[in-house]
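To close the section, here is one more complete example, presented without commentary so you can practise reading it yourself. The ligand is NDP.
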Amino acid sequence: MHVVVNAATSADGKLSSRRREQIAISGEADFERVDRLRAYSDAVVVGVGTVLADDPHLTVKDESLCDERLERGEPKQPARVVVDSKGRTPTDAAVLDDAATTYVCLSEAAPVGSRMDLVDHAELVTAGNDRVDLLRAFAALEEQGLERIMVEGGGELIFSLFEAGLVDELRLFVGPKVIGGRDAPTLADGEGFVEEFPLLHLEDLERLDDGALLRWTVED
Ligand SMILES: NC(=O)C1=CN([C@@H]2O[C@H](COP(=O)(O)OP(=O)(O)OC[C@H]3O[C@@H](n4cnc5c(N)ncnc54)[C@H](OP(=O)(O)O)[C@@H]3O)[C@@H](O)[C@H]2O)C=CC1
Ligand SMILES: Nc1nc(O)c(N)c(N[C@@H]2O[C@H](COP(=O)(O)O)[C@@H](O)[C@H]2O)n1
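Output:
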């Protein structure tokens, strides 16, 4: 399995504002790059915080990229994955529509009623007691043949993936906006590291739109 975290931050490192509403940080060229990265992924992963905040669809938008997937013998759309301990994903969420297969990764703490609602819309994976055990959940996804994983956020999930040692690459678009706010989400929130900080190796740096695209690999 190869896990790429892809996100866009403002120049001051925020994923969105303190209102946690979706903000277009990427410009046209970066959104096209993100669409291509989705098209070359087996699954696109987000945390339930992003589903509740953004109601994302997480599909490949460019039909010609979808056609190329079909020509390669892949499903028209990559799978979508929501990491959601307690089954809070609303049944009318865009990510649960029939455009692609969706997996919802739950913990044992997810109420039976939520499971019964979600099972009509998604494949359910259970891993962990109170919170989703990401190592086990990602192993279960790999067993389903999902090898090329793209994680789109948000900050809580990205931190946990670094903490679990699951991230192979970080692709970050830093855009020409200042958002500010001590309560605005950043690339990696959660508890934060105080030692044994994950170290990155810069592979590429490119000017894109009015920002910069950085590609790092994660050192072992
Ligand atoms: N600019 C960009 O590129 C992007 C921006 N965003 C922005 O980020 C914000 C959302 O981020 P955020 O609030 O951090 O939410 P996340 O999408 O990171 O989801 C976090 C939630 O996932 C659930 N979860 C389950 N298991 C785990 C685990 N092991 N580790 C971490 N989380 C787990 C938790 O909820 P529970 O306990 O209920 O399961 C947790 O609160 C929004 O404002 C959105 O607009 C999001 C994506 C990309
Ligand atoms: N790459 C990128 N740049 C931005 O500026 C963004 N705001 C995001 N957000 C992510 O994209 C998801 C929306 O996906 P759909 O267009 O609905 O398919 C959103 O939920 C974030 O994960 N990404």
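Once you have examined the tokens, check your reading against these statements. Residues 8, 22-26, 34, 46, 50, 54, 56-59, 152-153 surround LIKH6CAM (ligand 2) (CB under 6 Å). The CA atoms of residues 103 and 153 lie 16 Å apart.
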